[in-house]
Amino acid sequence: MTKTIQNHIIKHWKKVxxxxxxxxxxxxxxxxxxxxxxxxxxxxxxxxxxxNDRFLSAGGDVKSLLPKKRGPxxxxxxxxxxxxxxxxxxxxxxxKYYSK
Length: 100
Hints:
This protein is mostly helical. It has helices spanning about 5-25, 35-40, 45-55, 75-90.
């Protein structure tokens, strides 16, 4: 993620959270409710609270507003193992079992 994208994300969430704090104090001239704020910014209340809690728990650090890393992608490894197991099964000689 480039610095420009990071700055854009931080700027967006900082503005949303500032508006949210004003709504909580009932001092926001544009939004009366959290629902109106969420509809305007096209976010869910769950997402708003997630970012607010993350921002407050980080002590107001703006870097906490960036998306978190999701973890390694293991799908490629699983597909590789699946291909190996299919290759092994296909290469085994076909044995026909008869029951008497």
